[in-house]
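Translate sequence into structure tokens.
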Amino acid sequence: MNIFPNLNFMQSSYKNQNYRVAYTTWGSREKSKKVLFCVHGLLRNSRDFDFVAEYFVKKGYFVICPDIVGRGNSDYLNDYTGYNLEVYMKDICSLFGLYDLQQVDYIGFSMGGILGMLASNIPLQLIKNLVLVDIGYKIEPIGLMRILNYASESTTFDSLEQANEVIKKNLTTFGPLSNELFNVIIGNVLTLNNEKKYVYKVDPNLSLSFKDALNAVNAINLLPYWENINIPVLIIRGENSDLLSREVMLDMCKKPKTYSVEIKDSGHAPFLYNDEHFKILENFFNK
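Result follows.
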């Protein structure tokens, strides 16, 4: 059984640019009866799901986690206007088609959860169970502005120590993280550039799209997409989240087959890495 991450690439395009979408897989598509599809948040990448993937591969899943274009090992766009939900959805649907996926369990962190709600509205009904990690049909402006503010800060560091200090501050809302776990996360989000400085595995020009992204989030009404979802949904909220309010979560739970759980001592968004988290997911998938 292959429980190690495998890096793969898929071709896509935007305007006149052909680009590669990287995605990480765990396990064997041929030997697995179930598929778990995981999508990361705004500035994250597929390796946020290492712990989740390792657990569910052992439970018989094939796990697929894309690096949304401009992040991780995916190519960067020449035209930053391509960093939008429409392009992201196109790539996700292409990845569904590449593996001829019929039904998947889906986990989406923050932005990945928004994409999960949109994907759940596709007529083909590819998503069997949907997990929304700290995201709902309404996004609290204070939380969104906090994320966009730190996302717009410099992402170049002269030393690993400097990077650790900044990233640790930004990740306090992930919940209690051991030094060992923090080092794993650091290793997955940083790389050395040509000047031998540490940088995020994120296109620096992504920040140019944040104003457009903010306008798009304010303009898009996720409520109709949410109301049109008729599959089982699990909402995982950080108890101190400033992006998903408890009121919105409880309102969403009025819908049949919608469940929720709050993770103590975390904000936006709780990082899923231990047996307690895995059992929450597994129990939901097996309902």
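Note: The mean pLDDT is 91.
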